[in-house]
Fold this protein.
Amino acid sequence: MKDPLKPNDFPASRFATNESHRPTHGNVNLPRRRFVLGVAGGGLLTAAGLWPALAWGQEHAGGMPVLRGTDIRLKIGLTPVNFTGAARQATAVNGMVPAPILRLKEGETVAIHVTNQLAQPSSIHWHGILLPFDMDGVPGLAFPGIAPGETFTYRFKVQQSGTYWYHSHSKFQEQTGLYGPLILDPAGADPIQADRDYVVMLSDWSDREPEWIFRRLKQSSDFFNYQMPTVGDLVQDIRTMGWAQAIDKRKMWNAMRMNPTDLGDVSGAAYTYLANGMSPAANWTAIARPGERVRLRVINGSATTIFDVRIPGLKMTVVSADGQDVEPVAVDEFRISVAETYDVIVQLPDERAYTIFAQSIDRSGYARATLAPRAGMAAPVPQMDPKTWLSMVDMGMGGMHGMEGMEGHDMSGHSGQSDASQRSMQGHDMAEMRHGEQEHGKTGMPGHGMGNMHGMQHDNQPAPQQMPGHGKAAGNGMKDMKGLDTEPGVDARVMSPSTSLADPGPRLRDNGRRVLTYADLRTIGGPLDPRPPSREIVLRLTGNMQRFVWGFNGKKFSEHEKVYFKYGERLRVTLINDTMMNHPIHLHGMFSEVESEEGAFQVRKHTVNVQPSKQISFLVTADAPGQWAFHCHLLYHMEAGMFRTVVVA
């Protein structure tokens, strides 16, 4: 049967090839545990003399090469790697996976010369960086891409500081290794003081071709899900909730044609999870002495994997989110969605080793590193958490009569969170909104969905601070679903989206640990722009799991027009997740300032993760003229259509 792929779902696809430079291999039949953990001596094959070491003479930080200065040269090419026991080729920068750490300084103008040694076009996008749109690195929007054999010079002034990263924006090159850390040092003294400073870059690697993975997802979206409900699960449910409820629970999921364990697109069945390019068996190690303040800059450079990160036995103090300093908050664990970054401070209390443990959201595997006083030390690796089902809360049905007993978790008993957080997690309904007005608001511009936002002003007039959808309930139940019918690109609509920022999300509730949420994050210094928004854009995050089609408002990229921001305006963007999956939404060129449930400034981010059935709003100042990418950062969702072009003019 022919693979059901359609061209031009994503603008960079015009530069895509079949990646024929990466040889197609047969079925991967490695033993299950070995495939998850990788090999102890894996990674780049430069040590064996199989590839020229292009990083000679570079500074190193924790074993990772570092490039500094205002004039930097990078080469994109193929590099042999071995993460699983089988030799493969990766798309690398200067022969490195991850690419070298780039360490730039705020206030300086840099020139980064990127030479493409591949047989097909390539690109580099500077994720979260404020720069001219023609330096942003998105083929088809910012520039044509870097042709084979050519060099493109990115030139921009560094206007910020913090932890960021860079990656390819050409087809699947990010999945095959083209990603790296980008650290911007402040012009003055760093307000975050630390004795040691390490990058921990998480990623997912597959020996299979990304095109093969994408085809399997299009044919069967749960192809990589090895956690299908079993007879054993049924027996356990019968014991805990009784025969009738256990059967009703399964009937409900069957009626919705959805899988209650489908938290990720690709699992450990196809992935080995890496920390700084090293498999769990290889165990990358950061050295620190007891009492030292250690700054860990955690970056999720995965193609599609969301990680839950903790260091058993140590508290972590979160001091920065997406490169922006936040008021310190001590936690045991945090979920880091694809493309997000978190800086944490930790201190070793003794001479023991501690495991940096990052389990995938679907609990099919993990990345692992070690923090220790000496090289060669190791600590026990914890067991992965249970593979619990999604709940009715995750489906936006938490308040529906008769559903309470079917929830996978008791939202009122969320251990490890504050009382205020528990109350907040009961959820709020969004204000009334008429389907059809989401897509074309009163401005007449495509994508400007105002809905029935009574109280919102238009035509660039000031809007009130208290907006609908922020702490205001409009009731719930089927009556609110009028007009929100499904269509070919939409297989579900959320009845009562929650605006709570205090919910840590599926598989983190009630785990007995103090888990970070967006409600805990408060960016130091407040908003960049004190003006209230003059208008609101409402976008629903939609998908059809069976067809593996993703988009905004039921339309994928190839079916929709551009979204227009007026230069200089302050506007609110409200995202409603109609799906069962998390969507890390990234707006290029401008920061997104997430609002609290009451409509107040909360946290500044470049990537906003929207949980299943959640509604989240952020303010943005359209101060960057040009055309910018706006998309889900799950690579296969973006390729399947969850992408829009934002024009600022």
Remarks:
- DSSP finds six helices and 33 strands in the chain.
- The CA atoms of residues 566 and 649 lie 5 Å apart.
- Confidence is low (pLDDT under 50) at residues 1-32, 46-57, 399-484.
- The two ends are 45 Å apart (CA to CA).
